[in-house]
Amino acid sequence: MTVTAPTRRALDSARDNLVPQPDHAAVPIHDRLHRPLRDLRISVTDRCNFRCPYCMPRSHYGPGHRFLLGSEQLTVEELGRLAGIFISLGVTKIRLTGGEPLLRPDIAHIVRRLGSLGVSDLAVTTNGALLQRWAAPLADAGLHRVTVSLDSLEPDVFLAMTDSGVHVSHVLDGIAAARSAGLHPIKLNCVVRRGVNETSILQLVGFSRSHDLTLRFIEYMDVGTSNGWRRQEVVTAEEILDQVRRAHPLVEETREPGDVARRYRFADGVGHIGVIAAVSRPFCGDCTRARLGSDGRLYTCLFAVGGIDLRGPLRDGVSDAELSRLISTRWEHRADRYSEIRATLPPSLRRIEMSYIGG
Predict the structure, then answer these.
(1) Given this model, what pLDDT does residue 207 score?
(2) How many domains does the chain have?
(3) Sign of CA dihedral 253, 145, 114, 42
(4) Rounded distance between C-alpha atoms, residue 288 and residue 290, angstroms
(5) CATH code: domain of residue 141
(6) Any domain includes 19
(7) Least confident of 55-64, 115-124, 157-166, 232-241
(8) Mean pLDDT of 187-192
(9) Where are the alpha helices (DSSP H) in the chain?
(10) Assigned domain for 210 exists
(11) In sequence order, what are the beta bridge partners of 126?
(12) Residue 166 confidence class, pLDDT cut points 50, 70, 90
């Protein structure tokens, strides 16, 4: 008998239910702006096989750059232990990021360990170059869904956006493999940068509609300081939407609390898109996300200038209760709203790089 990917996941789920779960119910915590902790993004590596200029420009991440050693990264068990504590504090969604998470050779073990905790939404964000190899093993391990970064379907533009030497066809093959493995829904993320890939918007829309994919356009953001961000390179959400509307009428959908994207469905009923207005329209008001770096530092904002160390206390043998106190105290003191006060902050502010916290 052939066992399909969904069947394998059902069997895995049944087995994982036998794994001991935390013996206390989630106790939601809120920050100073009354935002609950609901989402956790975990960067499992700071390494990547792409050198996208808006994230890891080669000028800063060349041969001489020092990446984390394996011993400096959180182990599978450490990730599982911390994730369990976050779940006890109200987290219901976990997304694995990087760098490029599929570069971790133990990524399937990480997924299986986190899946055993019973989190309702477990996802991976990837550049897709290695997804054809990993899609089935990740589905078998219990991954729920996948988001693929895809900034253009045009080979030359894709190469310019990724600076990788990887042909876009490898990413498309990865998306097809994810579909075959049962990783649904599949989302595509496209960062739009003026003068580089704004001509790719409608082609991506057509591709997503014909392949039943949810496409999200993201304004080029000033995350970190290495990408040389300039506001004049931002193609605003309204410009993106105007281009799409001219070809495909849109109907705006109700935005869910904590969702940074404005969502639209196509008026003809074929597909959806989202737009993240990270610059032109502040989106911090109801942010529910915490970010755990691959070195075990906790960040409470995408645009953070620093975080608190959890790896040290974890390896020093502190109790779960003490780790929970560290996390909850940091969240309860949180008042981050960078996108709302961006204009009042000094340009020299050194923010954490996206490759450390996964976007």
Answers:
(1) 97
(2) 1
(3) negative
(4) 7
(5) 3.20.20.70
(6) no
(7) 55-64
(8) 96
(9) 5-16, 76-88, 107-115, 131-141, 155-162, 168-180, 201-210, 237-247, 311-315, 320-332, 338-341, 354-357
(10) yes
(11) 148
(12) very high
Burial level of 314, CB count in 10 A (0-12/13-18/19+)? buried
C-alpha 35/C-alpha 26 separation (Å) is 16
Other CB atoms within 10 A of residue 51 CB? 17
Cα angle vertex 333, ends 327, 339, to 5°?
105
Q: Say how far apart CA 219 and CA 283 lie, in whole Å.
A: 12
With respect to residue 237, please indicate whether it lies within any of the assigned structural domains: yes
For 252, other C-beta atoms within 10 Å of its C-beta total 10
Is residue 204 a contact partner of residue 157, using CB atoms and an 8 Å limit?
no
**Chain-centre distance for alpha carbon 317:** 30
Spatial separation of the C-alpha atoms in residues 206 and 212, rounded to whole Å: 10
Inter-CA distances, 21 with 117, 118, 248, Å: 6, 8, 47
In this structure, the number of other CB atoms found within 10 A of the CB of residue 45 comes to 24
Question: Which of 133, 116, 103 lies closest to 9 in space, CA to CA?
Answer: 116
> Domain limits at 329?
5-9+29-357
Number of residues that make up the chain: 359
- Helices and strands of the chain, counted as H and E runs: 12, 12
DSSP-assigned letter for residue 284: -
Q: Is the pLDDT of residue 283 over 90?
A: no
The whole-model pTM stands at 0.86
Three-state DSSP at 127 gives coil
User: How would you classify the pairing of strands 214-219 and 186-192?
Assistant: parallel
Domain-embedded: residue 17: no
Going by their DSSP bridges, the two strands 121-126 and 214-219 should be labelled as: unpaired
Return the C-alpha torsion angle 249, 255, 259, 262, nearest 10: 20
Residue 19's pLDDT band, with cuts at 50, 70 and 90, is very low
- Kindly give the interhelix angle for 76-88 and 320-332, rounded to the nearest 10 degrees: 60
pLDDT at residue 304, as a whole number: 63
